[in-house]
Amino acid sequence: QVQLVESGGGLVQAGGSLRLSCAASGRTFSNYYMGWFRQAPGKEREFVAAITGSGGVTYYADSMKGRFTISRDNAKNTVYLEMNGLKPEDTAVYYCAADRDFLTYYRRNYDPEYWGQGLQVTVSS
User: Fold this and answer.
1) Cα dihedral: 92, 97, 101, 105 (round 10)
2) CA separation (Å) from 24 to 5, 63, 87, 96, 121?
3) Tens of pLDDT, residues 23-71
4) N or C: which end of the chain has fewer CB within 10 A?
């Protein structure tokens, strides 16, 4: 079992930045491919970014490229999502995820092994 706890969300003005954190329990954190998803009001959940166990390979949704950066610190069992140039349409609940198969993050029916509880990010206009 892996427990995921997100932090760092909140309210920010358009054009601002936030860094989300996701702390994981367990001793095998580096064996998991980590990712972020989000779900805006009235919309489907969508993929944001993913990262391999060593942090050597990252993948982003097209709309996130150049603005968001995913990283991880295995010594702290933590994955991060740095968000810059935030827009009102980025307002959503952001979810951390963990899975031992990287291809999980390419599938439309997102079903990682573990989900975080969700973290609210609100961007004002």
Assistant:
1) 0
2) 7, 27, 28, 10, 20
3) 999 778 999 999 999 999 999 999 999 999 998 899 999 988 899 999 9
4) N
